[in-house]
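Ligand-bound model needed. pyridoxal-5'-phosphate.
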Amino acid sequence: MPSNRRRFLKTVASVPGLAALGASPASAGARQERDVYKGLGGRPLINAAGTYTVLSASVMPREVMAAIESASRRYVNLSELHQAVGRKIAALVGCEAALVTAGAASALTPRAPAWIAGKEAGKIPRLPATDGVKNEVILQKSHRNGYDHAVRNAGARLVEVETREDLERAVGAKTAMMIFFNVHDPLGKIKVEEFAQLGKKLGVPAFIDAAADIPPAENYSRFLKMGYDLAAFSGGKGLRGPQCSGLLLGRRDLIEAAALNNNPQTDVVGRTNKVGKEEIVGVWAALEHFLKQDPKARWREWEKRCATVAEFVAPIKGVKAETFVPEIANAVPHLRITWDVAGSGIKPGDVVKRLRDGDPRIEVRPVIGEWLEVAVWMLEPDEAAIVGGRLKQILEKE
Ligand SMILES: *Cc1c(COP(=O)(O)O)cnc(C)c1O
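Prediction:
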């Protein structure tokens, strides 16, 4: 080795930043991984909250990262990739057609124009201006939420209804489609199955946002079988694909229309919801990986983690810990911890704050009552004991 190169390598190895960037010599042994968060000022966190977007939702399994790495090394035609991966995804979940979107919310945007402008080249560039086209989207008043902004982005006018009779009256010449937010099913008078049946009866395409309803994997096809024409899911939540990915599944003609209103086309509403080859391949790889796993084994692992956390806190006097499964959205084992809030003087909000301010920083679910909720499914396997240990310290007032 020339001496100047040796000298350079020696210098590099002595500069921590450079060594961490992977510039350390191969002779130094195993390649060191770069920790990109170091030095950025932010504090990484242990995610005992679940698939919250603001907490970056999930981390991708190694198998998914390997597929993304592979995708990132070559050029492809993005339209061809969309079609090829769409076919693979549709075959995996058992539906007619699929489109990778930039998230479940993003699936709402190209899907709305699919009904408003369809495949009509003249109408597509005019959106979100909707003069002269069907632009009314019917939904239950109790289903209104922040994500319906994505539908409004496409120029849709939301028409609120409460009862079945309201809905039947609301359908008219300007009706483009009807939309159901599954997480709000308990709040509405019209339930998930009846809503799909009404769509069929009235001849209005029905769409369901089921962003957080994976697992179980059966949900990918369940709503379509129920009669929905299209369904949207997050790619970066329970599926653990890229955070900026989602799946739009359903009828072939509508998926084709959505694709025409979506990136990589330019003069379309969906242009701003771009996914690259990394997201497209990544969400497909995540789906393959997810479907290969044994759902029962996955469930047992989550129950085991709940039990691990419970073992730390349940022996504390007055503290109770029980596993529960949310009925809709994130329907996996969680742990609910209750104690005598008034008697102990420990408020759930204060526990959340102390977990957040501590080292390591831990996030749990937002407080909705006089108790605490811990999600274990997004933890790394060894983190359940860390969360349990911290909770024990706080609840024992150490
Ligand atoms: C998270 C979520 C979305 C948005 O999903 P993204 O994949 O983050 O775009 C939409 N609807 C519901 C009900 C959600 O929970």
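The longest helix spans residues 295-313.
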